[in-house]
Write a structure and sequence with these properties.
The protein is mainly beta. It has a domain at about 20-120: Immunoglobulin-like. The chain is about 10% helix and about 30% strand. It contains one helix and eleven strands. The radius of gyration is 34 Å and the shape is elongated.
C-alpha cells in the first residue's frame, strides 16, 4: 500500500515539476534574466507622426533586422519593478535576477510617448533524476599523525645592500655606512 501511494505521489510531483518547464537550456538561454535588444526603424526619428509605437522592436537577436538600428539613448524601464537602464551603442538591456513572469518594458525617448512591449523571463528546471555528486570532505588528521617541523631554525644572511670590494663589506649608504674587514 505504501509503495502505491509513493508511486502516485512521485508521478504527481513529476508532472507538476515538468509542466511549463524545460530542462533544455536552448529553451531558456538566460534563466531568471530579462534581457534583449531594442531596435528602432532607421527613419523613425525623422518622421513627424509623433509616435514610435510601430517603429520599435524588442529582440533577442544581437544584430538588428534589415531597416533597423540599435535604439541608443532610449530609457528602458521594467514597469512591474521600476528598474531602468539607458541603452548604449548596441541597444542592449539586462535586468537580473527576476522571478519567472511576463514583464512590461516601457521604452522612452525624448518627448515621444512611451512604447510598451511584453517580454517573459524563463527558468530552467532540473529533471527530478538530476544527480549532484557529494562533496568529499576528508577528516582532519590527528595532530599525532602530522609531521613535526624542524627544531633548528635556518640561519639566513642578510645580503641586501652589501658589496664586496677587496675584502671589505659595507651595509647602508652615506655617512652612517659601516665597513669592516671580512
Amino acid at each position: 500500500m505504501k509503495l502505491k501511494i509513493c508511486s502516485v505521489l512521485f508521478s504527481v510531483a513529476f508532472v507538476v515539476a515538468m509542466v511549463g518547464c524545460s530542462s533544455d537550456l536552448d529553451d531558456c538561454p538566460n534563466p531568471n534574466t530579462l534581457s534583449g535588444f531594442v531596435y528602432i526603424g532607421q527613419s523613425a526619428l525623422k518622421e513627424l507622426d509623433g509616435t514610435l509605437d510601430d517603429d520599435v522592436i524588442v529582440s533577442d537577436q544581437n544584430q538588428p533586422p534589415s531597416g533597423f538600428v540599435p535604439f541608443k539613448g532610449a530609457k528602458v524601464t521594467v514597469e512591474e519593478t521600476g528598474l531602468s537602464v539607458e541603452l548604449g551603442e548596441r541597444g542592449a538591456f539586462v535586468f537580473y535576477p527576476l522571478p519567472v513572469n511576463t514583464y512590461t518594458l516601457v521604452i522612452k525617448y525624448g518627448d515621444f510617448p512611451p512604447v510598451r512591449r511584453q517580454k517573459g523571463v524563463c527558468a530552467v528546471s532540473l529533471p527530478l533524476n538530476y544527480y549532484q555528486p557529494l562533496i568529499y570532505d576528508p577528516p582532519i588528521a590527528d595532530k599525532q599523525d602530522q609531521p613535526k617541523p624542524s627544531q633548528q631554525p635556518t640561519q639566513q644572511t642578510d645580503t641586501s645592500g652589501s658589496w664586496d670590494e677587496g675584502g671589505l663589506s659595507s651595509w647602508g649608504e652615506g655617512e652612517d655606512a659601516s665597513a669592516r674587514k671580512r
